[in-house]
Amino acid sequence: MKRILSGNEAIALGAYEHGVIFASAYPGTPSTEVLENLSRYPGVFAEWAPNEKVAMEAAAGASLTGVRALTAFKHVGLNVAADPLMTLTYTGIKGGMVLVNADDPAMHSSQNEQDNRLLAAFAQVPMLEPSNSQEAKDMTGLAFELSEQFDTPAILRMTTRVSHSKSVVEIGARRDMPAPEGFERDLPKYCMLPAFAQKRHPVVLEREEKLKKWAETTEVNHWEKGDASVGIITSGISYNYAKEAMPGASFLKLGLTYPLPEEKIKAFAASVKKLLVVEELEPFIENQVRLMGLTVEGKKFFPRAGELNPGLVAEAFVKAGVLSQKPPAPSFDALGAMPRPPLLCAGCSHRGISFALKKIKALVTGDIGCYSLTALAPLQAVETILCMGASISMAHGMHKARQTAGVKDSRPIFAIIGDSTFFHSGITSLLDAVYNQSAINVIILDNRITGMTGAQHNPGTGETLMGKPAPQADIAAICKALGIKRVRQVDAYNLTECENALREEAAAAEPSILITKRPCMQLLTLDAAKAFAVTEKCIGCGICLRLGCPAIYNGEAISKADAQTIRHRAAIDSNMCAACGMCAQTCPQGAITQPTSAQAC
Amino acid sequence: MNILIVGVGGQGVIMASDILADVALAAGFDAKKSEVHGMSQRGGIVSSHVRYGDKIYSPLIAKGQAEILISFELAEALRWQDYLTPTGQIIVSRIRLVPPVVTMGMAEYPDQAEKHLAGAKPIVMDALAMAAGLGNPRLVNTILLGIASNFMDLPLEKWNETIRNRVKSELADINCHAFAAGRKAETNIPL
User: Fold this and answer.
1) Is residue A333 part of a domain?
2) Collapsed DSSP state (helix, strand, coil) of residue A326
3) pTM above the 0.90 mark?
4) What is the mean pLDDT of chain A?
5) B183 to chain A nearest CA, in Å?
6) Count of domains in chain A?
7) Fewer CB within 10 Å, N- or C-terminus of chain B?
8) Structural domain tally of chain B?
9) How far is residue B95's CA from residue A387's CA, in Å, rounded to a whole number?
10) Distance (Å) from the C-alpha of residue A161 to the closest C-alpha of chain B?
């Protein structure tokens, strides 16, 4: 049977068919759907871990028990999980262990576009790169086999366009796996004390040589004979664009992009007049091919930043002189000058606290989550966004630097972080601030869900990925246990309460925690009957618009004809309004009200 | 065949493109589709590329190569019309979703958007009113697919089968009805 699946759905299917028993991940676009789908298959334990490092270590433990284990996260997650990976490559595995790592070229939903192929080479672990969903499924199985054959974790490297594109996949059945033997003691292999680790490093180097030999013969490094005037080495999504632009060229499509098959590449190069590498981001393949002593071009014509697309690849081929016909220019112009940035949902409680922060003129360090969006107009509440957990540690560093160097800046410092990001890496940052005594203020937006990636469960939710009840981590208790005395909860829908709380905490000479508790809008069903409405009292001052709520728009014009600027009454889209009431609180005229019938219930 | 479906996060663009790709597969074609999830879905711009044919490599459509552009919103049609072929067909739902940046006076919504639509005979439908008339404003996507189906070589029974498979069973009849209404409505569009 054939079905159209996304790359991520296909990986889940591949892992299931190839007998995976354990899977642990942290959600992150574009990787999230791998575990969401895998958790629905029978016979598989799948979980959300608090962060990627934990997920990889949990998968390592499962692997050493002799079962096939998978971990999955986005590219920047491997920065967090680099620690276990760099030594797992020494210890090796027992049951097959696969890391699905999804890069995000063009940064559709990320803070950088690092090319994680470099990290596979750094860790000296084999890396497979599918071009479509069928390959994603097949290479998931191959990755487990490679892992077991060569006693190493293996990486399945995805990119947004492979993870989130859908294509046809043949559905198979789960294969029977031999019963796992369980963990067996092997101290020199699994205890990386210096004396043992010194003996494992040569093993890694020998393994790499064996993998290079395997790379020469594997079918996933596929030579497609064609016109000998140009040979294209490519992999992943780039293969599709290149194949479409130059279907008749000679192709060496690499399914295994680390380590590379040197002999095969040399033979391919010798068979063509001109050698080109088509790859997204860094010249990862190109540089290695050049080190083989071959004349090759790539990044001279293809950009290092952003993702490729069919038009861009065709144009680059023209520049490289291998394609004579220029792609025709589009017949019509795009006329969409107006930006449409992503927004916090109507009714999102992050809006209230951000509005209050702006009002008290705080210096706010931001973090990774939906509240990153408060950096945009009109809220513009946060000043920094770096990586998971950095809001708290950066606030601490700012406070200490300001204090020690006598910087004249009296703005209170606030860090703002969501519950899932706090669990991920905010707790250790907070411990630093407490231990080294920074009078910073931390706002924890506790909506009990991982919102930005589409409402995944986390240790605060009370339910696991597989739908089982779980203990709910108590953020206030955690903060108190770390040594913070000032811990309070505020209602983020109450703007006055937020503002007063912020001012009080700003004035305190010790670290403080403010926790907001309102559910994520993705979990709620809206009721148009409860929607707020704008009455004729509205004078069009525009103050409510400063909330940046997508449900509020400009209604009827109310200015006199001779007015210099036209004023509009605000209007509220009743299908979008979540009845949070924040706009009503901002209105100096009391012009925004809720229907009395809705107030009663 | 290349079809670009665009709109704003939450409008049902991805559901529409899922249905279309499934219909193409059911009709015996190779099919691919591509879109971006995540941050772009918070009221931001959403685009979904759908391609079908004997053999499809790229899941993305190149600019100037889309035979059909289905837009769930007027300004979004303008934003993406450079993807159309010279004879490409635009199908737009007559909805203006004005982002807060415009409300705040920091940007302008395109003036008289309908007049600037590309192609000889752009189709602009009051799809939301039609959907509301059929009893559910969320039927906009099946109505737009119904209109677009007139420009594709995919059999009617595959459309109906796929829609039934894709939507909740209690909504299957009404969605098929909305699809049929869209498919029929196209012929009544004033030139």
Assistant:
1) no
2) coil
3) yes
4) 96
5) 25
6) 4
7) C
8) 1
9) 38
10) 7
